[in-house]
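User: Run a structure prediction on this.
Assistant: Running it now.
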Amino acid sequence: MLSITDYEIQPSRWQIPEMDEPLKATVINEAPSSEGAFILANTLPTSLKEIQEHHIIPVYSKDNEPLISHCDFIEAAVETVQRLFPFETILNPAIRISHPIKGRIPSARNKPAKDLEDWEKTLYYERAAFAIEIPSLNETIDGNTLSLTIGGVKAYNLDSLHQKKGVDEHFKLFIGFQNKVCTNLCVWSDGYVSDLRVKSIDQLTKAIIDLVVRYQAEKQLQALSQLTDYYLTEHQFAQFIGRCRLYQYLPQVQRSEIQLLLMGDQQVSCIARDYYRDQSFCRMPDGTINLWRLYNLFTGAIKSSYIDTYLDRNVNSFALVNGLLQSLQGLQTPQNWFLN
């Protein structure tokens, strides 16, 4: 078993305690990680128990060996978080699933769908995302409580199911914060592995430990805190939104020279709407909006994304707003295209 002391950790209030033997967390609440959804789109909420008892596991077609299932992934993450944070409050994972793959047992092959009994049906979901909140590790920014959160995404459509067991299986991992005001996740590049490829649960567990141990919580919190000190005027915000709409139609050569934008018109429209209407992050009476509020409008808008694009858009949200910050600080050369 991997030892936490195999890693070099800088002292801080977020430090993972060193230990010779792994311990279990002292508190595991019965409630999910949050009362609200961290992602919406076409997803459904579910529980680990539901997945364990009712979802079948896809296999490789050439040898009938199982893939690392959603259940395996979530269980490995929960157990690893318990080992890494033995003295913290850890909530049960909040899980969202999408893209159901339905089937039936062979003896029911000739039955009309309406006549199928529950025990004759098979089901699994192609994509799953989960978030494990640690509410005892928290910080406050602009009156918003942020809790440390760890999770991941598994999408079977990225795997080669026609192969044999032993080929790479694909995962996404993240560690960051969840804003308790709105359940928005705050993830940036230093806390994100966008294309993890492993062949076993042991490799997956090692990757989770490596990400968590090397993550610098203070660095992200400092970066997020800076956003509260800088503002866009109403004119700047309008120009920014207009440029976001233009971005999709730029010639490829020009687009490659400016900051990447992963959001579509639907998300940009949500940001424009919530600039006026969001109860927690709307503009100030004079029309200005600080970058912290703007960032949360971004992370709220992308909750309408599909599971397989959600985390990439979340990371991109911070990159975009941080680009605005650097422009307002006069640190970005040439000037930010979205504000130029």
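Confidence is low (pLDDT under 50) at residues 1-11, 19-31.
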